[in-house]
Design brief:
75 residues, mainly alpha, two-stranded antiparallel sheet
């Protein structure tokens, strides 16, 4: 099973949702649950489809998460 090895606490997920929404990193449907959509993304759910608003911001986000060991490569 492919994942990003993401093990975030509830508080970390709350902060991530806040960050993603405040910086318009992804384009979620108005009625979507951002938290569950992000969880699906980090689990590499192939049915998850999230539109990216700014590729550079996504790269910065994922790079920062990798630097702080919040995501890894399936260890």
């Amino acid at each position: 099973m492919l994942t990003l090895g993401c093990q975030l606490s509830d508080r970390q997920m709350d902060l991530l949702v806040e960050l993603v929404q405040s910086h318009d990193i992804f384009d979620f449907a108005d009625n979507s649950d951002v938290r569950s959509e992000l969880c699906r993304l980090f689990k590499c759910d192939l049915d998850a489809s999230i539109r990216v608003k700014n590729v550079r911001n996504v790269a910065v986000l994922f790079d920062a998460m990798a630097q702080y060991h919040l995501i890894n490569n399936n260890e």
